[in-house]
Amino acid sequence: MPLRRPHRLLLITLLLVLLALLAFGMTRLFGPQVRTLTVVEGAIRQAVVASGKVRSPQRSELAAQISGQVRTVNVVEGQAITPGELLLTLDDRELQAAQAQAAAQLAQAELRLQQLQQLVEPLNQESRRQAEATLTQAKLQYQRVEALVARGFYSPNQLDDARRALTVAESQFAASRLQAGSNARGGSDYRLAQNAVTQARANLALAEARLAYATLVALRAGTILNRLVEPGDSVQPGKVLLTLSPAGNTELVVQIDEKNLRWLALGQSAQVSADAWPDRNFPAQINYIGPAVDPLRGSVEVRLLVPQPPAYLKEDMTVSIDITTGTNDKALLLPLEGVRGTPGDYWVLVIRDGVAMRQSVQLGLRNAAQQEILDGLATGELVVASSETSVAAGDRVRARH
Prior knowledge:
Blueprint: H1 5-30, E1 33-34, E2 36-38, E3 40-55, E4 60-63, E5 68-73, E6 80-81, E7 86-90, H2 93-150, H3 156-183, H4 188-212, E8 215-217, E9 222-227, E10 234-235, E11 240-246, E12 250-257, E13 269-274, E14 277-289, E15 299-306, E16 318-335, E17 340-342, E18 345-352, E19 355-360, E20 362-366, E21 370-375, E22 382-384, E23 398-399
Parallel strand pairs: 1-23
Antiparallel strand pairs: 2-22, 3-12, 3-16, 4-11, 5-7, 5-10, 6-9, 7-8, 9-11, 12-15, 13-14, 13-16, 14-15, 16-21, 17-18, 18-19, 20-21
Helix pairs in contact: 2-3, 2-4
């Protein structure tokens, strides 16, 4: 006999109550179902990714050394240059005139010294010999006159004349000695002539150096990055005329957040792509890590060497750098959301015998999705996801499948 409607409703209600009591009992007995994560074995690669710039190791700025007007500019931006190649010239007419004047002054000073060596010195020596002979003759004459005056043959006036002639001869001899000494090697006139030659040579060297400043020549091979002047421009000392990227190793410069500093080491490899060619990668290697952290940006400067830079790479080009900081082909891996705690006190809630247990773990490498577990867990263990905030250590739980 079919049940009446009130009886059917009562039966359904009793069944629902029974099911609810059963579910409540299961929860109290075995714990709630929670989302879990499984510890697996696999490969992991840890990387630091940042954006940097292409830079030559030693960019050179070629500046004017003197004031002047640009006469010619022989290079264009992007041009490759070789050592000794003429890059730029300034108007050098005034400098050439100064150099010619200095050369003439040097020739005059050298001629004066040559005269002292070849003409004046011998003439002074001859004049000294003549003065010495005149003095000897004056002495003999004075002696003769003195003897004749004593014998009464000459008057005293003649002796006075002989004495005056002797005095004049002595003065002439002394003057000739002084003149010969001054003009001789080591004498004052000779030293003055030598100093004049030295000074004239220095003036000529200065004039030649200033004249050389009017011509800008490449000292090394490289590429012209910037041409900052044109013919007719007036320039002053220190004004940058050309910017040169010397030929040599290409470097990438990047600022890395200081929190990643502990993962970086010299020699680490990286894959790089230019923003203009994102589908083309080329290798690089860390060859410099800055000794200090920038206090304003909280970053450290890192440079990477590009052993074989691609042809499309340009100075100051923006590049994306993916630095490999560690790999492990046989690592114990756990999704990041399974790890809890803070540096120095990392832990997980691992399910063992149906109970969530707090387990300290030692961490290793890390990527965007997984964390390497060095110690504390084993392959296949289940870990409660950190999103299950209602679960505490010691609670009975069941894995949600």
